[in-house]
Amino acid sequence: MTTVQADGGTSAPPSDDDTPAGPDDARRAELKALAEQAGRDLEDASALEILQWAADTFGTRFCVTSSMEDAVVAHLASRARPGVDVVFLDTGYHFPETIGTRDAVEAVMDVNVLTITPRRTVAEQDAEYGPKLHDRDPDLCCFLRKVEPLEEGLARFDAWATGLRRDESPTRANTPVVAWDEKRGKVKIAPIARWTQDDVDAYVAEHGVLTNPLLMDGYASVGCAPCTRRVAPGEDARAGRWAGSAKTECGLHL
């Protein structure tokens, strides 16, 4: 496992007009056209076919990101490209079970886990912004501990895969299986976008895929410990994230 500390960046979320450094204009145009065409061509393809396309197209310039809620996409990607890089953002606020899942994935799956840490430790962030920033300004906290580090984690890749699904929330209902990530200048792949929770459960059972133990303890979606709670029967799967606030996304997929 490789650990990388995010470096550079700003101390506040960028404006909508800010575009991170990335490929040159010609390469961006090429990747954008590729993503848009693949989004159309692969809409009805299986998750494994989508990931095989990504592996064949981008090789070592392709990675998977994982929150370690489960290892489904990492497992699928390892079938398409053994030894695939899996980017994990260690925010410093994770449940111990999440770190344990990361370590288990590294130990038993044919993947290379890249752990990315923020520029500031939790103590350094508390000293600069005050304690419990996640309670007072969760958007800024997510930016500093997730969004900014992701830029570092994806820097050397042209394409990244996520576990986004259309059935998770209204904000994800139109997730393409392949799209152009304009802010980062990269191809964004959601191979299980069309899957339901039943599909995920069936894949986990069939292949013995590792999942976060918290999923068996009342948590339907697992994020940072201070901002995640168990959900009640019948609640939306993401109701336990930033409960009591209007926040629904950490910013990684906006």
Strand content: 5-15%
Span of the ends, CA to CA: 28 Å
- Helix proportion of residues, in percent? 25-40%
Strand order of the largest sheet: 1-4-3-2-5-7-6
Supply the helix-strand structural class. alpha/beta
Radius of gyration: 17 Å
Strand tally? 7
- CA-based shape: globular
Order of helices and strands: EHHEHEHEHHHEEEH
Q: What can be said about the biggest beta sheet?
A: 7 strands, mixed
User: Quick check: average pLDDT?
Assistant: 89
Q: Give the low-pLDDT segments.
A: 8-21
H/I helix tally: 8
What's the arrangement of secondary structure elements?
Layout: E1 2-5, H1 25-41, H2 47-58, E2 62-65, H3 72-80, E3 84-89, H4 96-108, E4 111-117, H5 122-129, H6 133-136, H7 138-153, E5 159-161, E6 178-181, E7 186-189, H8 197-207
Enzyme class: oxidoreductase
Region (Disordered): 1-26
Active site: 250 (nucleophile)
Brief synopsis:
The protein is of the alpha/beta class. Helices cover 35% and strands 13% of the residues. Pathway: Sulfur metabolism; hydrogen sulfide biosynthesis; sulfite from sulfate.
